[in-house]
From TrEMBL:
Ranges of Low complexity composition bias in the record: 1-10, 17-38
Full protein name: ABC transporter ATP-binding protein
Coiled coil: none
Transmembrane segments: none
Subcellular localization: Cell membrane
Species, as recorded: Streptomyces cacaoi
Length: 364
């Protein structure tokens, strides 16, 4: 079953909450067991466009028991999500990122109705995930890069047919969605191959198709390009960009691959230790992370390290010098100052590496 199915107590790949943590004091899939209901999309009102996914002061604590002696046990409270708030307008793709253990999965599990929040308010497409999971699954699709939600022994075609029946997808809509995904994700030669015989990239494309057959308005992608080769990554990213543009699908993307973020998201939400540490434009991360850009200048001859206000020389190789300056600043005045005082022949600017920006942000 697809992600939506996962949220409803999947039988196929195992619910994402099933492996939530061995020390869990409460079952991660606490709300599991519900099955996909008979109702269709239904009317869910018209949630404000600027808060299609609405997270307010969200908290999730786990009680973890630890054995401290032969008979003694202590109970410790883990605050996995510690009061985060953000809103995602319809049709936006956001990168939801943070270091290991930051609370991303726990948040996504609450958004998909697998976990019930300890406190706070949640709405996805106007639906309260924990209370109305049956309604929610009609609106969401989930793709987990690390595990398939398809039936291992069945050909893709049969898995999709099962999804169709579970979601009661009207025949014409099912056919159109399947055809579109098969074409764009180049699955036509693979429909009769059992899932276990597919490569990771093929399987991922198969999973994405399964998650989209019922036209979800919100798509959660958890590491969708993990382990894929360069060509498969590019294909998946291109597909997701088109999906967002053509269908107005709202996408929450969790990934450690910063190229995914750079290519798909203008906005990122960064969490660390269960708290929101940044919510804004990807470019703005540079300011928060106090990163630096590098001006590489070629001079007419070797002159020793240049001295110029607003930058510092970090490397010199013959007539070529590397100058670091704040990424939030403009290179223009710096270049003018340099050109006024030194025999400048050529220059280029190197953007900061987003990976180092983010690690600086996490590092505090
Ligand atoms: N069921 C659970 N029981 C107890 N603690 C848990 C449970 N699930 C998560 N945690 C703890 O909550 C914190 C957040 O975990 P979570 O899996 O949400 O992080 P994450 O950001 O998704 O990390 P990763 O990138 O490694 O997947 C961690 O300290 C984790 O150990």
């Amino acid at each position: 079953m697809t992600a939506g199915g996962d949220a409803a107590g999947s039988t196929a790949g195992g619910a994402p909450g099933a492996t939530a943590g061995e020390t869990a004091g409460e079952p991660a899939g606490e709300a599991a067991g519900e099955t996909v209901g008979e109702t269709g999309h239904g009317t869910v009102g018209d949630p404000a466009r600027d808060a299609f996914v609405d997270v307010q002061e969200l908290v999730k604590t786990f009680r973890v028991r630890r054995r401290t002696g032969m008979l003694r046990r202590t109970v410790r409270e883990v605050r996995a999500v510690d009061g985060i708030s953000f809103a995602v307008p319809r049709g936006e793709t956001i990168g939801f990122i943070g270091p290991n253990g930051a609370g991303k999965s726990t948040t996504v599990k609450m958004l998909t109705g697998i976990l019930t929040p300890t406190s706070g308010r949640l709405r996805v497409a106007g639906v309260d995930p924990a209370r109305e999971r049956t309604r929610l699954v009609r609106h969401i699709g989930v793709v987990f890069g690390q595990r398939t939600t398809l039936w291992w022994d069945l050909p893709l075609r049969d898995s999709y047919e099962l999804v169709r029946r579970m979601y009661r997808i009207p025949a014409a809509r099912y056919r159109a969605n399947l055809e579109r995904c098969v074409e764009l994700l180049e699955l036509s030669g693979l429909l009769d191959v059992p899932v276990r015989q597919l490569s990771l990239g093929q399987r991922m494309r198969g999973d994405i198709t399964a998650a989209l057959l019922h036209d979800p308005e919100v798509l959660y992608l958890d590491e969708p390009t993990i382990g894929l080769d360069v060509v498969s990554k590019a294909r998946v990213r291109e597909f997701l960009r088109d999906l967002n543009a053509e269908r107005d699908t709202t996408v929450l993307l969790t990934t450690h691959d910063l190229t995914d973020i750079e290519q798909l998201c203008r906005r990122v939400v960064v969490i660390d230790h269960g708290r929101l540490v940044y919510d804004g434009a990807l470019a703005g991360l540079h300011e928060v992370g106090e990163s630096e850009r590098t001006l590489v200048v070629d001079l007419e001859r070797e002159v020793g390290p240049v001295e110029v206000e607003g930058a510092r020389v970090v490397r010199v190789e013959g007539p070529r010098q590397w100058l670091a300056f704040p990424a939030s600043g403009s290179a223009g005045p710096l270049v003018s100052r340099l050109a006024a005082e030194y025999p400048l022949v050529d220059l280029s600017i190197r953007e900061p590496d987003i990976e180092s920006v983010i690690s600086r942000l996490y590092g505090g």
